[in-house]
Amino acid sequence: MDNKFRVAVIGASGYTGGELLRLLTLHPQVTLTRVVASEKSKDLPVASLLPHLTKVYDCSLSSLNTALIAKEADVVFLALPHTQSLEPVAAFLAQGKHVIDLSADYRLQDPKIYEQWYQTAHTFPDLLKSAVYGLPEFNRGAIAKTRLVAVAGCYPTVAILQLAPLIAQDLIEQNSIIIDAKSGISGAGRTPALGTHFPESHEAIHAYKIGKHRHVPEIEQELARLAPAPSSKTTSSSPSIIFTPHLIPINRGILSTAYAKLKPGIEQTHLDAAYSSRYQNEYFIRLFPNSELVNPKNLRGSNFCDLSCTYDPRTGYLITTGSLDNLVKGAAGQAIQCMNLMLGFPETLGLTAPGLFP
Amino acid sequence: MDNKFRVAVIGASGYTGGELLRLLTLHPQVTLTRVVASEKSKDLPVASLLPHLTKVYDCSLSSLNTALIAKEADVVFLALPHTQSLEPVAAFLAQGKHVIDLSADYRLQDPKIYEQWYQTAHTFPDLLKSAVYGLPEFNRGAIAKTRLVAVAGCYPTVAILQLAPLIAQDLIEQNSIIIDAKSGISGAGRTPALGTHFPESHEAIHAYKIGKHRHVPEIEQELARLAPAPSSKTTSSSPSIIFTPHLIPINRGILSTAYAKLKPGIEQTHLDAAYSSRYQNEYFIRLFPNSELVNPKNLRGSNFCDLSCTYDPRTGYLITTGSLDNLVKGAAGQAIQCMNLMLGFPETLGLTAPGLFP
Amino acid sequence: MDNKFRVAVIGASGYTGGELLRLLTLHPQVTLTRVVASEKSKDLPVASLLPHLTKVYDCSLSSLNTALIAKEADVVFLALPHTQSLEPVAAFLAQGKHVIDLSADYRLQDPKIYEQWYQTAHTFPDLLKSAVYGLPEFNRGAIAKTRLVAVAGCYPTVAILQLAPLIAQDLIEQNSIIIDAKSGISGAGRTPALGTHFPESHEAIHAYKIGKHRHVPEIEQELARLAPAPSSKTTSSSPSIIFTPHLIPINRGILSTAYAKLKPGIEQTHLDAAYSSRYQNEYFIRLFPNSELVNPKNLRGSNFCDLSCTYDPRTGYLITTGSLDNLVKGAAGQAIQCMNLMLGFPETLGLTAPGLFP
Amino acid sequence: MDNKFRVAVIGASGYTGGELLRLLTLHPQVTLTRVVASEKSKDLPVASLLPHLTKVYDCSLSSLNTALIAKEADVVFLALPHTQSLEPVAAFLAQGKHVIDLSADYRLQDPKIYEQWYQTAHTFPDLLKSAVYGLPEFNRGAIAKTRLVAVAGCYPTVAILQLAPLIAQDLIEQNSIIIDAKSGISGAGRTPALGTHFPESHEAIHAYKIGKHRHVPEIEQELARLAPAPSSKTTSSSPSIIFTPHLIPINRGILSTAYAKLKPGIEQTHLDAAYSSRYQNEYFIRLFPNSELVNPKNLRGSNFCDLSCTYDPRTGYLITTGSLDNLVKGAAGQAIQCMNLMLGFPETLGLTAPGLFP
């Protein structure tokens, strides 16, 4: 116990915060010292917001007191709404903490792009240089060395993981990428609204924010890093993606179906080789030859991301499906994976529980 | 009563057959004279298979006796599995009946394509010439004149309706069409199987039959008819589509999200004009400016098909969403719409009930 | 058209109001002249609140102007939250209208009981005398003669229908009645709240308001009317019930399972005879010998109430299950059934559509 | 690794078997050495039946070879359909193994009652004497000493846990117990059938096997053991229960609502004291003052059983709600809890993970 790292979670009233708490109980090397929710929940038991944690965490909720938390924690997870992390991240960094931010506030390297998509100025642009995009499969080394991780978004995680081998190996026409993603409703957060009221969202499905979802610039930023250096012939190396998210009536899980035109001569064997060579040593990536098995059903509560790719000889397109639990590999699980890297633990520590099925 | 048309429904044990019975109760100009299910259900009450029809249809089930049915019915609906309609359709036509087939057996004009996708020879290829594809918004005149309608499939109906204005007006690059469709589980039929067992399909979503679904040739056949005549410069006038169906945990309804690259200069106003001019007089087509409103939720049990289209200026693509109830506009409702045309009734007769919400 | 009755619906933003509109489209003898929602929705199209009614009702929403509505309507339906109907009901009655109130405001005959359970004084106690409890199977004659119907609540409708034959024929020990009811979430209304937020209520079930639900006095009031006159030996003729409602993850529908100790000598045949004799001429009541068929699944969108009763020889108890659609037979359908009686139409007019299955 | 106990799981193709595998991955002191499914699955990977275990168990399935399994395992879990465990349990006992049977085959102490409810003779009645009913909260000591545990059924576990304090302390009239239970559909097993086909069971609820469910004798047997010794005045000490199970559209979880008439003078404080004193040291039992919090939602995937009790002063009845995950505390989790006792481990070892929420 004495040698465990002390951890604080800020933003415990939402689904991501609750999931951080659940997963931290499974981690053998950390102790939870502070759980922060809104001012009005102060001193209430954790279980008043998250009844499933009754008997698991019998501590009380705190309000956001940076100095106090800094004294009691080595690692701080922030699961706050976008724009609300800007200031506390800076404060905890100034106190020398390991900071793991699950909002989008430190994900976009260019503050102008942040401002454009989030309609607010970035108040700590200098910190963006030290912020590492929290997708361990691609930024493992940098995560291990930084004090600030901006955990990848849920849609971007699966989109990047399913497209990266194709882009890195230059197998597809970059400006042909279409991502049709379907997310469970926990992805919309815990604040009640008409659109997520049970009778409105049950037996329903719809697209939303077509062409305008804030994960677009995040996906484009990361795919651009993976693209091979442009030759003199190519006019642009940054892929411009089409991204359409949908809300589907499940609690957890994303299925992302992505399409891209293959370069001439590329067939199924090249695709299989690309995925397999890239991911064969990645514990959390599971490759399935049959796309019907890529289903959030098979990974709920786990940190896996399942992938498949199918070559369509009639059209010369690649169709790849990818799935993850938006609250685990798409948020809290990935955050703990990053923490393991930052603290020098084995990357999978505390994260190996399989999904709940059925 | 005396002047009503007499109707038989063959294949009452499935969801499509049940839906035909439900909708026929709402139709003022027909009388149901025979309801046919399998041999083993013979003489059982209709409600033994379809308890929701208790007190609505208190008649008994018959087995498939072509001569008897021909004697008692003017119009025959067949809701049988694919390949099982081939022979009875021919038999009822020979008896001079109006035949409305909901299987795929008479949809594909080219018997070789049928054989390729259904792995069985078409035993009545000559009848294909008189078969009219049952999509009234496009084949109204021909349906009114034929004795054999092959009702359009569920996915093809929405795909064709959402893409037709773009193709007919030559607004898109035809070989860029991608259709990402999501269907409720009634679309998989009523026969129990592991994949549709509740605990397996609830809280689940997956793609299936990527590049191999039998609705591909049907969509391509109909879109090709709509395409403008090829100029000398174009190599091909038939669009080759990419079609990925998914199963989602709702009972009824399809949402189809389709993507296509716009020809140079085409923007939102051109798209809106194309849809609006094509569909302004179509009662069953509803156009929504906001894609979030295109949702099977809003049309369950009704014969509507809801559409939206969104121009993405960042990429020059069009994203269109379309929705219908797979058992109504995607099957039984459309069949009755065709019947109305064949019998000279107003096309919307008996079909104007709004959807059940929530 | 000219001879149709003119109808207004007040409270169109909720599920009950929406369902009234849907069902009124199926009614051949009425015309909708006013649809009232909140002040802020004034002049918006009906479809802005209820997109499924696009093209079905293309009229605009009004605000609550009693004088104007009285001028334009013969019949007024009020689908307002409890306590908000008190005053407008009085106003419309004063104008000589047929008033059909779907709230609980005029259901309880004793204003003191109303005050006790609704924590507010009844401001029009004199009107309670003319208010008829809107359960046509029991109050047919009175409904036909009154100007004010207080439509029965959803839980009370099924509870009374399933228990009435037992009580009226004195087959059970009255103080042993236990009602364990399960309702779909549309029964909780359309206002978003944490408990009905999709991720909280999906894959969930819980009891609520044990011993305190406001439908208790309503059920007891109506069952007391049905009880045989107390003999000198009996200490009380009014049944005191135990009622436990549960919320289950379906959109529509109630299943009510009720238990009662049988009087000595009563067996299955007596039970069957009691239900059958009472309900054989009631179109909307369907009796099933197999309790597994009593399922809201079989009547969604319809005005049926399905019942079964099972004698348990091991314990001498009766277990009865009853089911209805809380928005139809439990609200809007029953309201129209009452209207038919008030206006002299056949009772089932416009209400015979079967349920949507699956 | 060397000192770990070796475990075999027989019946891996069903949900209970799959859940045993999932939970065994979380247990630090056992090694899985054999996973047995049907003959036709022999040599296939575990993930062919249970894709969520891909990368978690990369071993192959075996067929049922008793001798081989006995050689490779110290503990054998059997998750077979009822009646199929009779013989293999005897065989593994003869080999000196610790046997944990999840079927009902060794739960009923009286072979005549087994024969009556399971319509088959018990072929090893002598073994029933050594079989201990696997409900650790009541049989802790006996479980620790036996070689054969018959793990309690899912409904009986929650029913006994919610009623035991009342019966043991003589607070209720024993012949008034009514249990209205609602189960998720995984409780019906993994074999597809029409009643559990998604479109039939989604948006549905129904009672089944009223008065005839096989868990009745099991509940009665165990409650009888808890009842205080009959005084000379009482005619019977064995409670006869009314038990009505329902199927609800969730994957996992049971909510059981039980009713009983309180003895004179018993009120809320006595109830609270009874539950609290009985369960204050039971880790897996959580008591909630608010019955709305007793919800399978809060314990999915965990070994908790949540309880509440409400006194209804109007009627003198107690209403208690209880909830558990039918596959964990109702099956696999409880089996491992029993194993921990048999092997001398802390009872909660490997079972402390909280539920998955939402």
Walkthrough of the structure:
The structure is a homotetramer of 358-residue chains. The first copy, chain A, is an alpha/beta fold and 358 residues long. Chain A is globular. The first copy, chain A, has helices at 15-25, 46-49, 66-72, 86-94, 111-118, 136-145, 154-168, 198-201, 215-226, 268-279, 328-343, and strands at 5-10, 30-36, 75-78, 98-101, 131-134, 148-151, 178-183, 206-207, 242-247, 254-261, 285-287, 305-312, 317-324. Chain A folds into two domains: 5-129, 3-Layer(aba) Sandwich (Rossmann fold); 155-326, 2-Layer Sandwich (Dihydrodipicolinate Reductase, domain 2), CATH 3.30.360. In chain A, α7 runs parallel beside α9 (215-226). In chain A, the strands form two sheets. Chain A has a seven-stranded mixed sheet with strand order 8-9-7-10-13-12-11. In chain A, strands 2-1-3-4-6-5 form a six-stranded parallel sheet, sandwiched between helices. Chain A binds chain C through residues 15, 184-186, 190, 192-194, 196-199, 201-203, 249-251, and chain C through 15, 184-186, 190, 192-194, 196-199, 201-203, 249-251.
